[in-house]
Write a structure and sequence with these properties.
alpha/beta, Aspartate Aminotransferase, domain 2, two-stranded antiparallel ribbon, binds pyridoxal-5'-phosphate
């Protein structure tokens, strides 16, 4: 057995650390808290859900301007629900892509039957605000812009405040998938008009 295998959790008989972008390893205290069953209509559960939503809104400085809708599903489930709910059937989306999750946004719009165009920057570059501005000015049918905050697959942190400024100034709506950034990198709803 190598020196590194000795350090692995498996060697100590523990489950492996998950280093995936998606579900990550939770602590034993979180796992222990989940051993209790909750009734979804009961007062204590509703109070806990309210507290959780308030805290999430606080993180985004959005308490007096937004509502929080918790979704019970994977990240992809939440993104699909967001696109299907917020983009009307007559809408058209500009998808900013620089990695797998931007591509998945477009694929989701495909099977939701929503019209879209893409700005695909490959795996190394962020979409720039002036590029977004030019596309929006040239296509008056675009109603929404969808972007990944931190594109987990390529590691690129996209310039959300600058893109948000352009989108708001040109009167469109912005949808941000901040799955791997929220809580770590600030998203201020007061400054990022969405
Ligand atoms: C930015 C982003 N969007 C969407 C997803 C999809 O989440 P899931 O794998 O839970 O469906 C991920 C997963 O890591 C992600 O990082």
């Amino acid at each position: 057995m190598s020196e590194f295998e000795n350090l692995s959790p498996q060697a100590a008989g523990k489950p492996p650390y998950l280093l995936t972008p998606g579900p990550i390893t939770t602590t034993d205290t979180v796992k222990a808290a989940m051993l209790r069953d909750w009734g979804s209509w009961d007062g204590d559960f509703r109070q806990m859900t309210r507290q959780l939503c308030d805290q999430l809104l606080d993180v985004a400085n959005a308490k007096d301007s937004h509502v929080c809708v918790p979704m019970q599903g994977s990240g992809t489930f939440a993104v699909e629900a967001t696109l299907g709910t917020l983009v009307p059937k007559t809408g058209k989306v500009l998808v900013l892509m620089n990695g797998a999750y931007g591509k998945r946004l477009a694929q989701t719009l495909d099977y939701l039957g929503r019209d879209y165009v893409t700005l695909d920057k490959g795996d190394y570059l962020p979409p720039m605000p002036d590029e977004v501005e030019n596309i929006l000015k040239a296509d008056g049918e675009i109603t929404h812009v969808a972007v990944i905050h931190c594109e987990t697959s390529s590691g690129i942190l996209n310039p959300i405040p600058e893109i948000a400024e352009v989108v708001a100034r040109l009167g469109r709506r912005l949808i941000i998938d901040s799955m791997s950034a929220f809580g770590a990198i600030p998203v201020d709803a007061k400054k990022t008009a969405v």
